[in-house]
Amino acid sequence: MAEQAERKIPVRAAAVARLSGLLRLGPFLAVMGPGIITGVVDDDATGIAGYALAGARFGYSLLWVLLLTIVALAVVQEMAARMGAITGKGLAALIRERFGVRTTALAMVTLLVANVATTVAEFAGVAGASEIFGVSRYITVPIAAVLVFLVVVYGSYRRVEVVLLTVSLVFVSYIITGFMAKPDWGAVGGHFVVPSFHFTLPYLTILIGVIGTTIAPWMQFYLQSSVVDKGLGEREYRLERLDVYVGSFFTSFIAFFIIVTTAATLFVHGKPADSVTDVAQILRPLAGDFAARLFAIGLLNASLMAAVVLPLSTAYAVCEAFGWERSVNRPLREAPAFFGLFAALIGVGAAAVLIPGVPLLTLLFLPNVVGGILLPVILVLMLMLVNDRKIMGSWVNSPLQNVIARLTTGLLVALSVIYLIIAILEGVGVLTG
Amino acid sequence: MPFLSQLLGRPVLDPDGAHVGTLRDLLVLTEVPYPPVRSVVVRSARRLHAVPWSDVSSVTPRGTALRRAFDPEAYPAPGTDLIWLARDVLDKQIVDTAGVKLVRVNDLALVPINDELRLGGVDSSTAGLLRRLGLPWPSGLLGRSRVRLIDWEQVDVGPAIDEVRLNVTFDRLRRMRSADIAAVISQMSAGEAADVLEALQEKTAARALAELSEDHQAAVLSAMEPEEAADVLEEMPPDDAADVLGDVEKERAEELMRLMEPQAAQEVRSLLAYPEDTAGGLMNSRIIAVQETDTADEVIAKLRRTAPPEDEIYYLYVVDDAGRLRGVLSLRDLVVGQPNARIAQIMRSDVKYVRLDDPQEEVAKMLVRYDFLAVPVVDDENRLKGVVTVNDVVDLVAPRSWRNRPRRMLG
């Protein structure tokens, strides 16, 4: 060792190192990806529907929730990224190794239920977006399903990722529509910092939905596996944390503008938005044809992106947990469980949307509530793992991180319980409010 | 033959048949082939006790019977010197060295032999999973998911298990061929693969690393301790090392080259200057060059002295004083020629070559067309700069599915 330390550093190499040290951007660009992509995909069809409904039904009054979710999201995502970087294992593998087969089975069923619902929603997003443009879902949804399958099985996801990320600049469209909707910025600011709360079923549904879509179970598995895939370790951890925080900020930033848009238009004009096409149709006269189209393109892009990521990360996590051959790099016949699950998720997702008369908005919003109720299961497991010194060594949670993550878990459990109680008291008719 | 999952959680009974606790784990010492159970962990009154095997009469799915009365004071909490089968091995990943793959331990098969209970094998089948879940085994439905046992003597613990305590740091993995090691670690995450490579001999590690796919190489190299990574890079032929470093993040690559021996680093650095997809980017700059005036004997003596690796010894290239390529001769030409013959008399002077900036496809085509094992690379002034061997281009020609590609969520 001493011998190595004494080796002369070549002058040129030192100069290069100093130069790239000055521009810290290089290393960040190399690490960047998992957190930002997760953040971008987080604003998927369910996210757009969730935030749009929140604005349409309750105006600006739910904006304050975003201040909470951005902190909770950043803390939870950082935990997943840190576990990936320190252990070099996916979340499913950690759960299996620490808790055994039964808990793993429970976690996987949880993940499957939430992700099947979400995958259905992504195809509902494709259907909704195409119908805004007047194209039948019976044409676009099957095409989207085949496209997603082919891209993953025969294409190079890395290349697709670049395309998707570039196209995700479309998300800027939500900022533009936000301004085009001419919101009352004073009211926006007020509701953003002053919380309000109602004990009614519609309000709780939307509240759980907003939290549930912002912090979804799939994200934890996807992010941790992406960090592991990228080979990021302790050394890159600081930069990766920045990547995660940027991603979390992005998610909430876009969410903010979606809520503002629908609040300034639909809510102000007393239109509750009963379907996705409604949102666009109503945007048209209020904010212009251009705004409606931007909204649809954003929705389509978000849906397609998540329709790739969700089935893929679900199949990957399940196979990782049970020790089945996984990853798209294997020939199809060597990884039957992986490709089978992947294809089944896409098939179910696309087929559910094609059932005649199925309400798209319900399909779009349902996963948020399901996810919000199921998330605590995953969060509790994550908290136990991230605080286990045998696994994380000195990289366990700080007290503050624990407080925030536990509060988030507790809050979701409390909300879910209150929600279920009120739902039982009031009977059915939950989602239409 | 019981499985571990069928034994855990079962009652522990004293000689009178009284229930004293439940079985929590079995402890073994893994240095021994088919390790025997040394003690059993009993949970009694919310505490764990290690009961030595000599005090155990039998362990069956129905329960564990003790030879003498259970005295909580006599049996201390289990120490850390033994391996806990349920805690340390079950659910972890291990390397199946015969099947050359990474598998998850769904269950462990234990074999009662004489008075002992020995660890016989690993069950990685779906049937094992169902058994763990307490679900019936639908053997008729899932015909192919019959129990598949992997002999314990053919597994290596892999990176998941605390290898320091296991004291068998990849013993069996070490004995595998480097191509097989590569196949196994391509299924691991970069961090796990880095752990394995660090534990291997540098030469073996270098060969295994060279077999990995490009992006996995870069990730694994980045995950290794810098000093260890630099040592492994030194063991690689400069062209392979340059290929790997070309994919590593710039700052990291510079750090590694600083840690390498200056001469090896210099060779790599000069190779990195050439675009990756040209002859210059493919070539190995370590060449055996001889002079026309040398005799066959002198050259053979020189080869014996320097003992170059087989890749570099396919052909010998003849250069003049300015390093310009004059001719080529094979090892065969050298050996069957007269001992005192001058190289100029044995060599072929119509030597085929490629230029530094020729695209890699051209190089591959030339090797295939002429059935060459290697082709020399020259610069604009015809000076010999390096050699591209058939090994360097085989990846361009072989189907993608033959390569060791990492197990990634997203391709």
Q: What fold name stands as the CATH topology of the largest domain in chain B?
A: SH3 type barrels
Number of helices of chain B: 19
Give the termini separation of chain B: 41 Å
> Gyration radius of chain A, to the nearest Å?
22 Å
Mean model confidence by pLDDT of chain A: 83
Domain unit count of chain B: 3
State the CATH architecture of chain A.
Answer: Up-down Bundle
Taken as a percent bin, the fraction of beta residues of chain B is 15-25%
> Can you count the beta strands of chain A?
0
Keywords:
heterodimer, A: 433 residues, Amino acid/polyamine transporter I, disordered N terminus, B: 411 residues, alpha+beta, SH3 type barrels, MgtE N-terminal fold, CBS-domain, 7-stranded mixed beta sheet, 19 helices, 19 strands, 22% strand
What does this structure look like?
The complex is a heterodimer of chains A (about 425) and B (about 400). With about 425 residues, chain A is an all-alpha fold. Chain A has one domain (about 35-425): Amino acid/polyamine transporter I (Up-down Bundle). In chain A, about 80% of the residues lie in helices and about 0% in strands. Chain A contains 20 helices and no strands. Chain A has helices spanning about 1-5, 10-20, 25-30, 35-40, 45-60, 65-85, 90-130, 135-155, 155-165, 170-180, 185-195, 200-215, 215-230, 235-265, 275-285, 290-320, 335-355, 360-385, 390, 400-425. In chain A, helix 4 (about 35-40) runs antiparallel to helix 13 (about 215-230), helix 7 (about 90-130) runs antiparallel to helix 16 and helix 15 (about 275-285) runs antiparallel to helix 16 (about 290-320). The longest helix of chain A is centred in the N-terminal third of the chain and has 42 residues, at about 90-130. The radius of gyration of chain A is 22 Å and the shape is globular. In chain A, about 55% of the residues are buried. With about 400 residues, chain B is α+β, with helices and mostly antiparallel strands. Chain B has three domains: about 1-145, Roll (SH3 type barrels), CATH 2.30.30.240; about 175-275, MgtE N-terminal domain-like (MgtE N-terminal fold), CATH 1.25.60; about 290-395, Roll (CBS-domain), CATH 3.10.580.10. Helices cover about 35% and strands about 20% of the residues of chain B. Chain B has 19 helices and 19 strands. Chain B has helices at about 5, 85-90, 125-135, 165, 170-175, 180-185, 190-200, 200-210, 215-225, 225-235, 240-245, 250-260, 260-270, 280, 295-305, 330-335, 345, 360-370, 390-395, and strands at about 10-15, 20-30, 35-45, 45-50, 55-60, 65, 85, 95, 100-105, 105-115, 115-125, 150, 155, 290, 315-320, 325-330, 355, 375-380, 385-390. In chain B, the strands form five sheets. In chain B, strands 1, 2, 3, 4, 5, 6 and 7 form a seven-stranded mixed β-sheet that branches. Chain B has a three-stranded antiparallel β-sheet with strand order 9-8-13. Chain B has a three-stranded antiparallel β-sheet with strand order 10-11-12. The radius of gyration of chain B is 29 Å and the shape is elongated. At the A-B interface, helix 2, helix 3, helix 7, helix 9 and helix 13 of A face helix 3, helix 7, helix 9 and helix 12 of B.
